[in-house]
Design a protein that fits this description.
The chain is an alpha+beta fold. Helix content is 27%, strand content 29%. Helix 1 packs across helix 6. It binds adenosine-5'-triphosphate.
Length: 259
């Protein structure tokens, strides 16, 4: 997908600007720099390849050329986004769920920031916020979507099974069309960020709902419980082994099914 194909595919969307890179370090880094230069709302950075793509805590996100959809969208916060800044990660996940559904695939959101198809990681979301004093100035919504089979990392580079949309769909995927559909869905969900419908859709798409899971941060001991749903701020609601309600704060948490 070159710049012209991309521009054609996205022509109907109300983007604030577009910067395309055949190859770049990290689209989130480019977007952060652009936001600091005054980029408008819905300015989009797209790369065909990332040489230093980032997951959380500086972990690597694999983005080989001509296979992924990798982009970072600059959001100048709406009132709803200022009130609910942690919902932006859910926004990214829901934006992908709709176009997957129209292609016959069910997205499961592995809280907080991954999208699974058939139990395997097909996309990751990295939201980074820019604050001026105590005011949210911009959110960078970064997404890496494994569109084609070649975007899936080699097995020795991952800790969780991975897949691509192409592999699960069982046929080739038009990346430009998929991209347009993701962004259109994102813009639609964004206008409903502060609604019950948004939270319901996010919760309904959660992976492992009703199942025993373990959640942990860093080197902490895992918390084990049954996954119930989400709090309004996107924190995870569990019931622990004694039947007590527990909330796992939205953040840098790992989640797995409990064995
Ligand atoms: P988890 O939330 O699954 O415990 P994590 O916090 O390590 O994982 P993220 O920061 O969300 O995950 O993503 C980075 C990790 O995802 C990498 O460390 C690697 O294991 C895996 N990964 C990297 N690139 C891809 C990709 N294109 N598709 C699937 N998985 C990937």
């Amino acid at each position: 997908m070159n710049k012209h194909e991309l521009q054609d595919a996205l022509a109907s969307l109300p983007l604030g600007g577009l910067r395309y890179f055949a190859s770049v370090g990290s689209t989130n880094d480019e977007a952060l720099a652009w936001a600091a230069e005054g980029a408008k709302d819905l300015s989009l950075v797209v790369a065909d390849e990332q040489t230093a793509g980032r997951g959380r805590s500086g972990r690597k996100w694999f983005t080989p050329p001509a296979a992924s959809l990798t982009f970072s969208l600059i959001l100048r916060p709406t009132a709803a986004e200022r009130t609910h800044p942690t919902r932006t990660t859910g926004l990214g996940a829901l934006a992908l769920a709709d176009p997957l559904r129209t292609r016959g695939l069910a997205a499961q959101i592995k809280w907080p920031n991954d999208v699974l198809i058939n139990g395997k990681k097909a996309a990751g979301i990295l939201v980074e916020s820019v604050w001026t004093g105590g005011t949210l100035d911009a959110s960078i919504l970064g997404m890496g979507v494994n569109a084609l089979a070649a975007s899936v990392p080699p097995a020795d580079q991952i800790l969780f099974p991975a897949t691509s949309i192409e592999s699960e769909f069982g046929a080739s995927v038009d990346r430009a069309e998929l991209f347009r559909d993701i962004l259109a869905s994102l813009i639609g969900w964004r206008s409903r960020l502060d609604t019950h419908e948004f939270m319901q859709a996010w919760e309904d798409a959660l992976a492992f709902r009703g199942e025993r899971v373990q959640a942990w941060a860093g080197n902490d001991l895992p918390l084990i419980g049954t996954l119930l749903g989400l709090e309004p701020d996107g924190s995870l609601r569990l019931r622990d082994e004694h039947g007590n309600p527990v909330t796992v704060q939205f953040g840098e948490i790992h989640l797995r099914q409990a064995v």
